[in-house]
Amino acid sequence: DVFSENIQEHIRNSEGRTRDLTEGLESLTDHIRNIVKKESDETGDFEMVHEHKENIIMKTENKNVDLCFTTSRDQRLIDVRKPVNVKECQVMVEM
């Protein structure tokens, strides 16, 4: 039987393939860890940017409210619509 004659060679080949698979799995595990780490870092950055954008929108709304006291009714309606448009755009971008 050819298999029994070359059993040592088959064992060596099998051990080599097992070692290659083990090294490949270790490498894959390291890559996954790096991806998860980078993803959590990026999420933190997004939260900071999102929080910063909210502050800017609040400042814009406050400026528009201040303008409402000194302008005509039509101008006040335009000023009230501005923050609404900003919010709608922000929601569309976040999706």
From TrEMBL:
It comes from the Eukaryota. This is Uncharacterized protein. It comes from Arion vulgaris. The gene is ORF200184.
